[in-house]
Write a structure and sequence with these properties.
The chain is about 40% helix and about 10% strand. It is of the alpha/beta class. α2 packs across α9, α4 runs parallel beside α5 and α8 packs parallel to α9. It is globular and about 50 Å long.
């Protein structure tokens, strides 16, 4: 599939034709990753962040939220809950919090690997090579860092650099692969100024990077951020909408372009459509869900965008609800760590 074909699908509005896209994506998912839906327990370790991204509610510029960092014992309690729920992976996510030191996180990873059979995924932002090497040696399996958009001008507009350091997320992703991590990335859909051609190139970049995990979601700016107020958009016929429908298109096209990748049906989709957003994502190419293990008192503080789904649920309620939703659409609950099944060269 080339850029023009992807762009044409992104612009497609005919419901019958879109049904063909959903069918092709689902058939590809069945062939390459099977019928299992793997559950990866999310632990939002800290909402402290050094960066000032123009859309994110935990940006350093937001003075309206209370900050927190979980303790090691609080994290390990979540980890044991993941084991009890039968999850195969825990995902430790945070803002770019440099209070999360190399040694502190190393100790936690070692404990998880010693006490459980869980895979460990980290999503801690841009960190030094020394940090990444230490965490990999401690047993971390995967690292997630989204490049958000392959349009460099657009990226720089919404991601102010930290000091004089310019971000190169593509170089970071290649380095993570060299260090032996399974690597995940993704983009936002409907960033002000994002064109259909930009988004098509993003999807092709997934294939070029040969990503193990790919997460996509709609651009939902937090009201306490610059982009929560206003930003000039592309001309109306070129601007990608940040809609539920467009998100399904990108999930489906991503499955077709990267058939072996693990693709989550995200909380952001559930936030746009609480009734069946996650289910529709799973039926249109996705094979992962990420139930939240974060204690409720912290979960409400990890508000990266407004009206986030399941923000007041306990981890028990989240586990039960998602398992039932998965079974109700005829899928099975995954077992084991659920890594990428094979690594063919494309």
């Amino acid at each position: 599939m080339d850029e023009k074909q992807i762009t044409d699908w992104l612009r497609e509005e005919n419901e019958q034709k879109l049904e063909t896209l959903w069918r092709l994506a689902d058939e590809t998912r069945i062939t390459h990753v099977g019928n299992q839906v793997h559950l990866r327990g999310l632990i939002e370790v800290s909402n402290i962040c050094a960066r000032r991204c123009g859309y994110c509610g935990i940006s350093a510029g937001n003075r309206q939220i209370q900050r927190y960092r979980m303790t090691e014992e609080e994290i390990m309690d979540c980890v044991q809950r993941a084991v009890g729920f039968g999850y195969g992976t825990v995902v430790m996510q945070a803002g770019e919090d440099y209070g999360i030191t190399r040694q502190w996180m190393t100790n936690i990873i070692r404990r998880i690997k010693a006490e459980t059979s869980l895979a460990v995924t980290l999503s801690l932002g841009e960190r030094s090579d020394e940090d990444l090497i230490a965490w990999r040696e401690a047993g971390a399996n995967r690292y997630l860092i989204r490049f958000e958009t392959s349009n460099r001008e657009l990226y720089d507009r919404i991601h102010p650099p930290l000091g004089d350091k310019s971000s190169d997320r593509f170089a970071i992703l290649e380095n993570l692969k060299k260090l032996g991590y399974e690597v995940g990335s993704g983009v936002m859909i409907g960033i002000p100024g994002q064109t259909y051609e930009d988004l098509a190139r993003d999807i092709l970049a997934f294939r070029e990077l040969d990503l193990d995990m790919i997460g996509v979601g709609p651009f939902i700016p937090h009201p306490e951020t610059p982009l929560g107020q206003t930003l000039p958009c592309a001309p109306s016929d070129e601007q990608v909408p940040n809609t539920e429908q467009m998100t399904y298109k990108v999930i489906a096209l991503t499955r077709l372009v990267c058939p072996e990748a693990n693709i989550p049906s995200t909380t952001a989709l559930a936030s746009l459509n609480k009734a069946d957003g996650r289910e529709l994502g799973l039926m249109r190419g996705a094979n992962i869900v990420m139930p939240n293990l974060t204690p409720p008192q912290y979960r409400v503080m990890y508000e990266i965008y407004p009206n986030k789904a399941c923000i007041n649920e306990t981890s028990e309620a989240c586990a039960s609800c998602l398992s039932m939703r998965i079974l109700n659409i005829g899928r099975t609950l995954g077992s084991g760590q659920g890594g990428r099944l094979k690594r063919s060269s494309r």
